[in-house]
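Q: Hi! First time doing this. I have a protein sequence and I read that you can turn it into a structure. Is that right? Here it is:
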Amino acid sequence: MKNIKKTSAVTALILAASLGVSACSKAPNPLLQVSERDAGVFLANASQYAQKKLKWDRDTYGSGGGYGVCMTKTAPSANCQTLYKTMLVFAKEQQAYKTLTVSELTDRQTFEKLKEDYQGAKFELLPE
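A: Yes, that's right. Below is the predicted 3D structure, encoded as structure tokens:
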């Protein structure tokens, strides 16, 4: 009987600990909680916003193209961390992306998944 109580107590403790970890787990990446098309449009718009705020040359990076350039590392002189942080300023104004972080924004797997939709969306942007 003593072993059963001990086992039950240990099981309860493990269950409580695992529930606590689950409750503290990070929320899913906001870019993956909307359609790929919507996420691609958001990335293009956020990049365009950041590029304008940072006064990046549109002829060099294209309208909304800075994010892609940074993610593919094709512009070593670009200050990509500043671009990402400025994109988050734009994200905070969008209900679906308010909790987006730099690490989620720059996650390689997420970028690969959304790359086509992002590239399509940036070509639909009107130049600012």
